[in-house]
Amino acid sequence: xxxxxxxxxxxxxxxxxxxxxxxxxxxxxxxxxxxxxxxxxxxxxxxxxxxxxxxxxxxxxxxxxxxxxxxxxxxxxxxxxxxxxxxxxxxxxxxxxxxxxxxxxxxxxxxxxxxxxxxxxxxxxxxxxxxxxxxxxxxxxxxxxxxxxxxxxxxxxxxxxxxxxxxxxxxxxxxxxxxxxxxxxxxxxxxxxxxxxxxxxxxxxxxxxxxxxxxxxxxxxxxxxxxxxxxxxxxxxxxxxxxxxxxxxxxxxxxxxxxxxxxxxxxxxxxxxxxxxxxxxxxxxxxxxxxxxxxxxxxxxxxxxxxxxxxxxxxxxxxxxxxxxxxxxxxxxxxxxxxxxxxxxxxxxxxxxxxxxxxxx
Length: 361
Known about the structure:
By secondary structure, the chain is mainly α. The protein has 14 helices and 2 strands, in the order H-H-H-H-H-E-E-H-H-H-H-H-H-H-H-H.
């Protein structure tokens, strides 16, 4: 909206041309989303507290978590609101990528909202049945994948590229592209959701990955930079930087309230939405493999759950004291803040490794 207004005013005053720069609008998106989060956050937390929408804590988990019972949940709504407003303010709303990312983010957020609502308001401890949750996620993920394939303008938008392999380019075709996109969107959505078990554990890595993907989006949207860096040139992808900036700002704003000891929890409404958005952005900028590296914490958390279930069913024994793996370290005696900060450090290193692939090809 403000970007559109600046374009109109630039015809009369050249000073408004500065808003045509993606980098400036990306920075403004970060600041806007951060301020919105900080301004709206306290009121939203009070509303959730009054509505008695509080966290349910498992008795078989770490005993230190028992004190978290009743902490306001569904705070992910704050993240989605901040992202949406900041993106609408500073992005080019004629760009198809902006709308599909917003649509996926809101769709997965609504799925998470309904799941949280059933658990916290209705009192159904199981929430939305897994089969229905995955069905709704699949519908949203497949719709986004088909939309991207049907609206692709250049072959690079539906081609698989690998980091460190300069000349590798595998055309996926319709089925391959849709299948890979679906797995990235739904897989990352659930991976972030599994990671969201400690105060601030999921939101900081998500913000770091979003920031790195914003750099990829900016480079992919610029044909000169893309050619120099040997990455696919994706027309219009640069505008995704605005959404990524908004996610970074909203994530930092939410962390203000979610840092240990948390005043509010993200809930499925935020975790499912953020994960789906990260997966979709990776598909748009054709960096599916790189995002699995940068989001390695999410991948390991998911793998720990899969391995734990498989080991128990096949061997009757557990590999970890508790899954996801962050609970394993807690039960080994690590203090919660130590687990969180160490996972953040690992995430930072993985994000830097992912960014290194921009030049090492």
